[in-house]
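sanity check both lines:
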Amino acid sequence: MKVFESDCAFDYPWEEVSTANWRKYCPWNDKSTHVIAVDTLSRNVDSQTGILRTERLITCRQSAPKWVSAILGGECTSHVLETSYVDPHSKKVTMCSTNLSWSKVLSVRETVTYQPLKSAPDSKTEFTQDAKITALCGGWQKIRNAIEDFSLERFGQNARKGREGFESVLETSRKVFGEEREQQRREKQFA
């Protein structure tokens, strides 16, 4: 098993980050062109806790070296199940993702959290990410290690692109919704 870990702080309050999270794979994110569909499977709010639970199916177009494609079945499309929990009381978003494609050969389990940064809770959001990558295929340890090493490297590359893309989503969201609030303010002023 290989483990990927990453963290950073976004210069946006939790309310903006948790809202923009739903637009993470939209056209505002030019770094997520590999995501070709996001389908919401279920969404509900727990009446006791107020936690919003959402399940989404994310469909991606993947490119992999021929040797990896041969082992994993040659598919260029993959599916990921994402389950997210938004707790408005503790101001925490937790997202758990697992691969559905190639799951008998490779297990990728990712957990991401967004919560206010303790040192600047009103203006910054802490982001943490970890992924556990395990090759499940039988055979030689060398093959499993090669698959895990390749997957870990690719995961890290995609994670960096994902953060960059999410920054652009946050920036665009702030601009667009700021303009919308200004327009509404003007309309009320002249009404």
Observations:
- The chain has a mean pLDDT of 90.
